[in-house]
Amino acid sequence: MDNRPVGVFDSGSGGLPAAGALRERLPNENIIYLGDTGHMPYGGRSKEELIAIARRNTDFLKSFSVKAVLVACGTISASLPEVISADAETPVFGVMYPAVKAALRASKTGRIAVAATERAIASGAFASAIKAERADANVISAACPKFAPMTEAGHFSKDDPFVAETVREYLQPVAEFKADTLILGCTHYSLLKDAIADFLGPGVQQADAGEAAAEELAKFLRERDMLSARLEPGRESFYHTGGGPELFANFAEIFFKRNITADLEYIDLPQTRSAL
Ligand code: DGL
């Protein structure tokens, strides 16, 4: 038994679906969530900047003596698989490998598409991880730079014409490729599931990186007897680093089914460049 909280971070609201999925699986855990809203998007940043961000965010969460960290960010998970280690003193989990495993389980034809940020796609890490497990897989990768900022700005409804148009813009090649499975390799894309399903049709399964990682982390804590001994429901504390807290609170409400405003605090984390 381990009563310490679990830490989760992302560039903004994208990790909230993953944190919500963790909450569903682990009702008694305390969760500390950091949404680095003041420095989003991460998707176009250099590897050096991402290293600095990953360290800074992990150190912030460790200051709460967390028992594990979920890097609920496909960009960091794919660009820096070396920062992710289940063996470290504080285990750090990424979302890429769980997403790839979920996609391989779901795919019948081996035609797998990956949608993620520019940096995550440029790393080639998703495609390599798929090929490492299934050498005959056919992989198509789609960088979708507008998706995360679009959802962060509140545009994610399938009925929003701008959303439908942007989904088409990036995923037309995926439709033509006839993938049977699409990896949502950026956690923000969870919010676009319905719009993507509308465009690609019901024949394409979606492997959600955040949800797959939440499942793995929950299993890891359970198997190692690291769950909280508490009987009452776990609490959540949310931190953001700038921008509009209202929108962040609205997103959190979707996944935690309550108003979180009283548990949301601004934290002044250093600019990533000066953290280098
Ligand atoms: N949600 C993050 C990811 O999974 C970051 C998106 C961004 O900030 O560009 O990649």
Overview of the structural elements:
The protein has 276 residues and is of the alpha/beta class. Helix content is 43%, strand content 16%. Strands 4-3-1-2-9-10 form a six-stranded parallel sheet, sandwiched between helices. β1, α1 and β2 form a beta-alpha-beta unit. α4 packs across α10 and α8 crosses α9. The model has no long low-confidence stretch (mean pLDDT 95). D-glutamic acid binds next to α3.
Number of helices: 12
Number of strands: 10
Small molecules held by this entry: D-glutamic acid
* Shape field: globular
Write a brief caption for the model.
By secondary structure, this protein is an alpha/beta fold.
Topology readout:
Layout: E1 6-10, H1 16-25, E2 31-35, H2 47-62, E3 68-71, H3 74-79, E4 92-93, H4 96-106, E5 111-116, H5 118-123, H6 125-133, E6 138-143, H7 147-152, H8 161-177, E7 181-184, H9 193-200, E8 205-208, H10 209-223, E9 236-240, H11 245-256, E10 264-266, H12 272-275
Parallel strand pairs: 1-2, 1-3, 2-9, 3-4, 5-6, 5-7, 7-8, 9-10
The structure holds D-glutamic acid.
